[in-house]
Design a protein that fits this description.
The structure holds two protein chains of two kinds.
Chain A lengths: L17 H7 L5 H22 L8 H29 L6 H32 L2 H34 L7 H29 L5
Helix pairs in contact in A: 1-4, 2-3, 2-4, 3-4, 3-6, 4-5, 5-6
Chain B lengths: L1 H13 L1 H10 L3 H24 L5 H31 L6 H32 L3 H26 L6 H22 L21 H12 L4 H14 L5
Helix pairs in contact in B: 1-3, 2-5, 2-6, 3-4, 3-5, 4-5, 4-7, 5-6
Classes of the chains: A mainly alpha, B mainly alpha.
Chain lengths: 203, 239
């Protein structure tokens, strides 16, 4: 039966290539978790730069980083606050486990966005006129939303899997989902403005 | 060599599951890629020529030369999408396998296009109308696309969670191929238009779809302009 699983099980024999090192492997060193976050951020920045390919200008690099900011900000600011709350309620999820989950979330978003970079550049360069630019911007917004939701799903699933069986109750789920909700709000606040700026306000 | 090619082409059509399994296991990737590339080029070249035959003369040659480019460019833009999305959906594969899967799915589509080409050519000669030609060509492409989707679905790994991945990859592929084809138009050429290799860049296929939808409902550009003008007046906005 083909269905959308909230938390997918990894493939039995995962490929040990770049995408596996970036996303699927769970048992990683904290230093690699940091590398995952930075690589995911770099990929998201590349997507932002691709979204600005129709209106190239040096000052748009800042707007390109605006597209990539929500996953990084989520990883750096929201996950420590989740760790504090989970520890406060004694839910048994360690700081490293949350850091690993955050790294996997950011790198998942980054991998999806990296795959969309060539396609985004193509749409930006081939869509002529203000209406074409609006269409390209709408597609980019959909892409970022989808990639962001996949990243949040990876993060939430990893944190919930890390919680000990006896203590993974409704309150843990509520805290994790609440943090993800804040991540969605952060993205909704930053990304549309950044995409609008990358298109020169459709002028 | 030719026996190997024939065997792979037959497998592409008859047993997509075995091709998908070979790609997943990393077996015979070279021969699958070679056969798929050949099928893709021949299938799209012939189908392009048939589409161009609606107008005839030079347009047959132009469309035949352009359609393989549409497939190849779409493939080049879609493979990274598939590769990134597979990692995000926890079923990563090496890039070569993602590329081989997308190529094989496109080749299966192209082979079905090749099969549909004679019937479409006959239909285009019998039904001379431009709109009928557009509908028939689009239907043929859609039908052939279903054959490719079957192979792609099998190659995406375990069934659990496969639907969302397939939906995402297909959406990206459809949008890309539509925009690439729009960028390389004309294909059928309206009776009133001149035959050219490629028209100057203009908008996106989505605008054309909206315009065609309004036209089909009997609402033309001038009518829509008047409606927009009335709306502006109702809101007290300047012209």
């Amino acid at each position: 039966m083909e269905s959308f699983e909230p938390c997918p099980h990894p493939t039995p024999a995962p490929d040990d290539g770049f995408s596996s090192r970036m996303v699927t492997r769970r048992d990683i060193h904290p230093a690699r978790a940091l590398l995952r976050i930075l690589t995911g951020f770099a990929f998201a920045c590349a997507f932002g730069a691709a979204a600005g390919a129709g209106h190239p200008a040096p000052e748009r690099l800042v707007d390109a980083m605006g597209v990539a900011a929500p996953p990084l900000a989520f990883g750096l600011f929201f996950t420590p606050s989740l760790w504090v709350l989970l520890t406060l309620f004694d839910r048994g999820v360690g700081a490293f486990e949350i850091a690993r989950a955050a790294a996997r979330g950011v790198s998942t978003t980054g991998m999806v966005l990296a795959g969309l970079v060539p396609l985004t550049v193509f749409f930006e360069l081939s869509a002529g006129g203000p209406d074409g630019q609006r269409f390209a911007a709408a597609l980019e917004l959909c892409a970022v939303t989808f990639a962001g939701l996949l990243g949040l799903r990876a993060f939430a699933c990893d944190v919930l899997e890390a919680a000990p069986a006896g203590r993974a109750g409704a309150s843990t789920t509520a805290l994790v989902l609440g943090t993800c909700g804040l991540g969605v709000l952060l993205g909704a606040h930053l990304v549309p403005g950044a995409i609008l700026a990358l298109h020169g306000g459709f002028r | 060599m030719s026996a190997d090619l024939s065997h792979t082409l037959t497998a592409l059509l008859r047993s997509p599951a075995s091709i998908a399994a070979s790609i997943t296991e990393g077996r015979d990737l070279r021969s699958i890629a070679r056969a798929s590339l050949l099928a893709l080029l021949v299938g799209t070249l012939v189908f392009g020529g048939v589409v161009g035959s609606h107008r005839g003369s030079l347009q047959m040659l132009y469309a035949a030369l352009k359609l393989p480019w549409v497939s190849m460019l779409t493939l080049a833009l879609s493979v990274p999408v598939l590769h990134g999305a597979r990692a995000a959906f926890e079923r990563p594969e090496p890039f070569a396998q993602s590329a081989a899967l997308m190529l094989a799915a496109s080749a299966r589509t192209a082979l079905v296009l090749l099969a549909l080409a004679p019937a479409l050519a006959l239909a285009l000669q019998v039904l001379r109308g431009y709109h009928a030609a557009v509908v028939l060509s689009a239907l043929s492409y859609g039908l052939a696309g279903l054959a490719g989707v079957g192979l792609l679905r099998r190659g995406l790994g375990p069934a659990e969670g496969r639907l969302a991945l397939l939906g995402f990859v297909l959406s990206a592929h459809l949008l890309t191929s539509a925009q690439v084809a729009w960028g390389l138009r004309p294909w059928l050429v309206r009776p009133s238009a001149d035959v050219v290799l490629v028209r100057p860049p203009e908008g996106t296929f989505a605008e054309e779809l909206a315009r065609a939808g309004f036209s089909a409902a009997g609402i033309y550009d001038s009518t829509r302009s008047k409606a927009r003008e009335a709306e502006r007046r109702a809101h007290g906005e300047p012209r």
